[in-house]
């Protein structure tokens, strides 16, 4: 732990001045959960080396359309600020090189099927034997103790198995998945948090740790109060759509021209809502005096509020409710949401110049760092194998051996000048 700044810092990787400056990450993960976690570490200044197959790379390189200059938007979403080492792990010399990368890393992230990393000599036991301070993170669908051990765990499967789908959707309607691979995203966040905690101890004691994160555990914990509700009551939570099972009014409403959401989460806010609606009678009605009362008489109250909100356009209600301090928002599409956040001064976008895709807008992580204040650019997601020769040279591998690996196809070294906008997507 505590490497001096990497030569990669000169190219914009492992950004100096960030909290994880000097931290090196060997990223053997692919798809979403692991790459999302390592992107967060890269955003915080870590030098992340993304280790990929030289023929097909990360699975998400082929997950299109849509494409941008031959690059899948899915891959572009979670791989900024990283370097790509494309190497065939079935090649003994290529595998040995990756073992060296892992031995010199502060963090190793992997999501292979159980047993695969051990057979490759890249498991925690092998890596930590050479590097006792390493923080080694394993990501899986169902966790290290789950049987059967090799059960695959894509987000859709885990949303179904975890209760996430059962808790999502309209009352009386079918179970519904979230519109994004939410269990992958939650797992990426959990993995990053666990890695950061283990890094603190590694820095203090020189002892690393094997941490794990799974999609199913992330989903169960991410259901939060819904899971707790089920445990307390012993019954399955009902689907509530765009309402809330324990708070009224806390839902979407139609106005004269668009949908808004109103979140009157306590009695005082409810009173303010009634004042804006011009319905002091609703505030005085004993059926609606407290939140439990409002939950008990949900249908009657929602009908009254809905009738009032339909009389005026969304913009007028937003202005009036915000002025009264009532939490309210417009139901927006994704592009509208990004544009509105930008107009509001949130600066949610980073900009990158990609050699194939051209100018790219990328969405910032959900946190902000004072050490990154004012910065609006990022290193673009790498071409497959874009940094192979440089990374291998950093392990001490002589240039002639690197050249031989490239010549026989065990390592891919991409060249930016060969990338062109509109190139064909990968075929695997």
UniProtKB/TrEMBL annotation:
Molecular-function GO terms, alphabetical? transferase activity
**One Pfam annotation, family name?**
CoA_transf_3
The record's annotation in InterPro entries points to: CoA-transferase_III_domain, CoA-Trfase_fam_III, CoA-Trfase_III_dom3_sf, CoA-Trfase_III_dom_1_sf
EC assignment: 2.8.3.-
Key words, A-Z = Transferase
EC class, as a word, reads transferase
What is the protein name for this chain?
A: CoA transferase
